[in-house]
Amino acid sequence: MSDEIIKSDQELVAEALRDKHAFSLIMHCYEEPIRRYVRRLGCKDGSDLDDVLQEIFIKVFINLNDFDTSLKFSSWLYRIAHNETISFFRKKSVRPSVLNLSPEDSHEFFAQLADEKDFAELANAREDAIMVRELLSNLGPKYKEVLTLRFLEEKSYTEISDILKIPEGTVATLISRGKKELKTALENKDKKHI
Amino acid sequence: MNEEFSNKIMERIETEHLTPLPHWRFLLLRGTFWILAVLSVIIGSLAFGAILFLFFDFRRHGLSTIPHDATEFLLAIPYVWIVTFLLFIVVTRTSIKYTKKGYRYSLGLIISASLILIVFFGSVLNFVGVGRATHEFLNEVPLYNSINYDSKDAWNRPRIGKLAGIISSIQDNKNFSVIDFSGHAWQVSLRIPMKDKSDNLFVPEASSTVRMFGLIEASSSRFVANSIFEWEE
Fold it and tell me: In chain B, which residues have their Cβ closer than 8 Å to the Cβ of A58?
């Protein structure tokens, strides 16, 4: 196992502050998850996604001294990624595109949801990427954000609270309401099929 | 890992000579919000202290027992301080929200905590006399003086039978001169002559501050007092 892998995030940050070349180790660890997250937020693949990612990592580098070691580094990084992506949409005056979910994402999303007791019976045959994407896209942006973080990024309530800078209680409420909306949408879809 | 992407960023860092912002800038930013939160609690507390002072000052000067008109009731509400008090609860809440971990607390919790702090410190400030000091200090400011109605204003309404001021001279046991709070001189006649101190009643003396119920006479500087009380500071 290489040296970089066993280093903690705090150590990586400290090292990057001492020597900027060590910042590439942070990118090494987080480029893929952040790319996936930004894509899930609705940023289309291609130059837009690369531009947003570049701005995210530049901002992370410039603000390294702002990292609060009492938070998880990933929460702080996701927060910057979230804010940069939203500001990218605002600058371009565009709405986030339809959620960019791969079939694996859809499978993952419903596999996570199936663990929730009130979704158990609905989760069996819900691996249709297009349908999941459509259902999620029809949710309000706040619900979409928390559900993405909870069921796709597998973040805890505390982490979501730190990423979106909202109280944990609000995270719980948004997840619960988002799930309720999703469940209603799924049931309506079922009725239409019948 | 996408080496090309990582190299591109490292190249940009090099060519644009980017460096991490110094730690003190973030400390300063966070500190500013805490200072703002503390300042807004102090100003909110001063406002609440002044509200309490004005409320008790009205009561102390017998105004709550007077069946005064609706206009006077509306005038007596300390709007300036109520608006300041509410405004600084909002400022406290906003400042706390933007501190490092302020977002973790719900709106209700922050507002309740701000309210409790401001009410507690405001009561303490009023108890130690800061409520009065704040009001009296600002009363020197013409704008505040003109929009804020206090017990001195309420007792400076001879046309509706209320007059207060400092006795400048006593002519006999029925007549004396008074300078009211706006500096206007009055010749006052008591309907019932002053008694002596053995009756255990309030007997006005020269230089004492008094408040009176009575009637203004045809001559605009004469006031006939039905009753007279000591002005309690």
Answer: 9, 12-13, 18
CA-CA distance, A170 to A159, in Å (whole number)? Answer: 13
Least Cα separation, residue A166 to chain B (angstroms)? 5
**What is the extent of the structural domain holding B170?**
156-230
Reported as a single tens digit per residue, the pLDDT across B136-148 is: 899 888 888 888 8
Report the gap between the CA of A107 and the closest CA in chain B (Å).
24
Q: Encode pLDDT of A34-69 as tens digits.
A: 999 998 888 877 778 889 999 999 999 999 999 988
Domain A103-193 has CATH 3.60.15.10: no
Out of B111, B129, B151, a domain closes at B151
Residue B175 forms beta bridges with which residues? B189
For A3-91, give the CATH class: mainly alpha
Nearest partner of B5 among A30, A3, A7, A170, judged by Cα: A30
* H or E element at residue B134: helix B130-138
Model confidence over B164-190: pLDDT tens digits? 999 998 888 788 899 998 899 999 988
Find the CB nearest A31 among B5, B25, B103.
B5
Look over chain B and give the mean of its residue pLDDT values, rounded to a whole number: 86
**Domain boundary assignment for chain A:** 3-91, 103-193
ipTM: 0.76
pLDDT (tens digit per residue) in A63-97? 999 998 888 999 999 999 999 999 998 888 766 55
Is the Cβ–Cβ distance between B204 and B194 less than 8 Å?
Answer: yes
Facing residue for B21 by CB, picked from A28, A63, A68: A63
Q: Do B103 and A167 touch (CB under 8 A)?
A: yes
B108 and chain A in contact, CB less than 8 A: no
Q: How many Å lie between the alpha carbon of B50 and the closest alpha carbon of chain A?
A: 34
Reported pTM = 0.74
Residues of B in contact with A20 (CB under 8 A): 10, 13, 19
**Residue A19 pLDDT grade (very low, low, confident, very high; cuts 50, 70, 90):** confident
Does B126 fall in a domain? yes
- Contact call for residues B176 and B166 (beta carbons, < 8 A): no
B59 Cβ contact list (under 8 Å, min separation 6) = none
Are B88 and B44 a contacting pair, CB within 8 Å? yes
Q: Of chain B residues 24-83, which have a CB less than 8 A from chain A?
A: 25-26
